[in-house]
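User: Can you recover a sequence for this backbone? Please restate the input before giving your answer.

Assistant: Of course. Working from this structure:
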């Protein structure tokens, strides 16, 4: 079964890289968001299986978005992908429900290995 993915990143370049990696591996990209507000709206509208979530967005941080997803009972599995690699931030993301945390820059293999675990 093909899994549906929502990509959240404020960088069009990063969204395109993630999209290309995932589509080549057979995943279906159902939406893309560049802000936290879009990330929340699209997640509940599209109900994706997987969300890739940047931690630094223009209007919110990813951990705050995770709190909303958790509070509202969103069933999607979240992989955080961020240039912020401090251990405390990674731990917070995982504790708030992210299934994995990938630090940028990353390879297609790193992304696909984490997504395959979901």
């Amino acid at each position: 079964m093909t899994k549906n993915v929502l990509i959240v990143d404020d960088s069009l370049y990063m969204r395109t890289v993630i999209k290309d990696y995932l589509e080549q591996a057979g995943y279906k990209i159902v939406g893309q968001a560049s802000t936290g507000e879009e990330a929340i709206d699209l997640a509940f509208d599209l109900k994706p299986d997987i969300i890739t979530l940047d931690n630094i967005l223009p209007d919110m941080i990813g951990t705050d978005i995770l709190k909303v997803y958790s509070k509202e009972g969103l069933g999607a599995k979240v992989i955080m992908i961020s240039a912020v690699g401090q251990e405390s931030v990674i731990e917070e993301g995982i504790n708030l429900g992210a299934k994995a945390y990938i630090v940028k820059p990353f390879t297609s293999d790193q992304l696909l290995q984490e997504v395959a675990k979901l």
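That completes the design. The two ends are 13 Å apart (CA to CA).
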